[in-house]
Amino acid sequence: MKNLYLGLLISFIFFSFNTSVIAQCDNVTVESITNPGPYGVAILTELDGIRNGPDYDGATIYYPTNATPPFASIAIVPGFVSLPSSVQEWGPFYASHGIVTIIIGTNSLFDDPETRANALLDALETIKQENVRNSSPIEGLLDLSQLAVSGWSMGGGGAQRAAVLDNSIAGVVALCPYLENPVLNHDVPVLIFSGQNDAVATPSQQADVHYNVTPSTTNKVLYEIKGGNHSAANTPNGGGGSVGKIALSWLKLYVENDKCYCSLLTDDLLLNPSEASKVEQSFDCDLLAINEQELKIGYYPNPTKNTVNLEISKDVYYELISPLGQRMFGGYLTGNNKQIDLSELPTNIYYLHIEGQVVKLVKLD
C-alpha cells in the first residue's frame, strides 16, 4: 500500500510540474508569431547619428517602440550584387517581435562572403555603440550577450563565417547561403534555409554541404522550401510564412534563451511541414529545462555608467562580485523600483548573483 501511495505522489508531482511548465508557455503559439508582431517599429539611419562602419556601406536600424527591454539584436547583409532592399522586410518583422535589427549594405556589390562576414561583425559593433550613444533611443536597452547574424546568398555564407570569426555570436540565420569550400567549425546555433529549385545556390552543392560540415555538436537545422528559388527566404513570408515563424522561433530559443520556443519548433513548425521538401535537424532543446522555481530577471541598461534597473517579481537579496571573485557589496532589492548603483565602481565586468542565477553587468565610465 505504501508503494501505491508513493507512486501516486510521484505521479502527482510530475503532473503538477509539467502543468506549471506548460502554463508558462501558453502565450507562445504558432498564431502568436505573426507578421507583423505585437510591437510598433521605428527606424534609425546615419542621418539620426548612428555610426558609419568602415566595413559596410550604409545601415538602417529597426527597433521596437513599445516592448520591454533588454532587447536581442541581429545584423543582416544582402547577397552578391544586391542592395539592402532585397532583405529589407526582415527588419520590421524582427523588430515587431522585440528584436533590434540592423540591415547593412556592402562597400562593393561584388564583396565575397568573407568580406560580408567582416561587414556583419562591423554592424554588430555599431549596435554595441548605439547602446551607449547618449542621444540614441535604444541607449542602454540592448543585451549585448544576445547578438545574432543573418544574410542572403553570399551574405548567408558570410553570416556562417562570422560565427567562426566571433564565437560570442549567439545565433545564425542563413538565407539560401552561398559559400564555396565552407569551413564552419563553430558551435553557434545555425538555421539554414534553402530553396528546392534554387539554380544559383543549388542545395546539393551549397546548403546541404554547409549543414553537413557544421560540427555534429552544433545545434543546427536545414529547412528546404518546397518549390523555392534563390529568393525563397528573402522575406519572412517565404514558404507560406513558415520561414519567418521558424527564424523567429530559432532566435527566441537560442539568442533570447526562451525555452518556450523549443516545443513550438519540435512539435509544430518542424514536424512534417507541408511547405518543406526536406528538413534535417540536429539540435537539443528541452522544454522541461524551464525550472518553475527559476526567477525571471530583467535588467537594463547594460552596459551602464550609473544605475541598473532590475525587473523582478518579488523582493530578493543580491550580491555583486568582481571578475576576481571579490564581493563588492550586496543587499536587498524591494518594492517596484529595484535599482543597483554602480556609479562609484571602476570600469569593469561584474557578476550579479540572485537566487542562484548570475547576470553579467558591464560598468562604463
Compact summary:
The chain is α/β, with parallel strands linked by helices and 365 residues long.
What labels describe this entry?
alpha/beta; disordered N terminus; 2 domains; globular; 9-stranded mixed β-sheet; 24% helix; Rossmann fold; Immunoglobulin-like; 4-stranded antiparallel β-sheet; 7 helices; 365 residues
Notes on the structure:
This protein is α/β, with parallel strands linked by helices and 365 residues long. It folds into two domains: 30-282, Alpha/Beta hydrolase fold, catalytic domain (Rossmann fold, 3-Layer(aba) Sandwich), CATH 3.40.50; 298-363, Immunoglobulin-like. The protein has seven helices and 16 strands. The protein has helices at 2-24, 90-95, 113-130, 154-165, 207-213, 242-254, 260-269, and strands at 41-44, 59-64, 71-77, 99-104, 142-152, 171-175, 190-195, 220-225, 276-282, 298-300, 307-311, 316-321, 327-333, 338-341, 348-354, 357-363. The strands form three sheets. A nine-stranded mixed sheet has the order 1-2-4-3-5-6-7-8-9, sandwiched between helices. Strands 13-12-15-16 form a four-stranded antiparallel sheet, with no helix packed on it. A three-stranded antiparallel sheet has the order 10-11-14, with no helix packed on it. Strand 12 and strand 13 form a beta hairpin. Helix 3 (113-130) crosses helix 4 (154-165) and helix 6 (242-254) runs antiparallel to helix 7. The longest helix is centred in the first third of the chain and has 23 residues, at 2-24. The radius of gyration is 22 Å and the shape is globular. Mean pLDDT is 90; it is low at 1-23 and 287-292. Residues 300-358 form the Secretion system C-terminal sorting domain. Keywords: Signal. It holds the Pfam family Por_Secre_tail.
